[in-house]
Amino acid sequence: MSRPQCSRCLRPATHCLCPLIPSLESRTRVLLLQHPSEVNHALNTARLAALGLNNAQLVVGEVFDDLATLLNPPGYQARLLFPSDDAQPLQRYAPDEQPMLLVVPDGTWRKARKLLHLNPLLAALPRVTLMGDAVSRYRLRKAPGPGALSTVEAIAQALQVLEAPASFEPLLRPFDALIERQIAAMGAAVFEKNHG
């Protein structure tokens, strides 16, 4: 018998994160393309980001038949948030600059690359990247390298840069709570032994 689940945040009802999820406005539109293997992941930070941003959309799949439509909402310039040699560092919007459709693949690095491989329109988008080597707040995982962030952290940082001085820190509240709950559940001694 399974535990009752919140239909919105998909957490067990006893650990619902909805009271911590903000309702943030952004000039930037965020399109999250989530690999199906991430849907039932314990953290599912793409879902947290989509729930916390009023101008965001989460689409699950490997091949997106309606990708041309998704990538061309009127009034936005589509950019793929994904590292590459030719990726442009994100910068604050100029006053009259057209806002961005920030396309964010969600999955392991391997699965995200697969999404690009299976969707040529996605792979063909101009790429943008975050500057610097931000440190992830995901203290339960070893990052594969400097600047490796969870999906919600990457989105919050990207919006922070693009729309400064607006703050997108509230987007990370449910993520931080989730991490704290997992640490509490494993106990301080186990956390220190494995992640300290």
Automatic annotation (TrEMBL):
Ranges where the DTW domain occurs: 2-187
Q: Which UniProt keywords apply?
A: S-adenosyl-L-methionine, Transferase, tRNA processing
Highest taxon of the lineage: Bacteria
User: Which Enzyme Commission number(s) are listed?
Assistant: 2.5.1.25
The record ties this protein, via SMART domains, to: DTW
Q: Name one GO biological process term.
A: tRNA processing
**Which molecular-function annotations from GO does this UniProt entry contain?**
tRNA-uridine aminocarboxypropyltransferase activity
Q: What is this protein called?
A: tRNA-uridine aminocarboxypropyltransferase
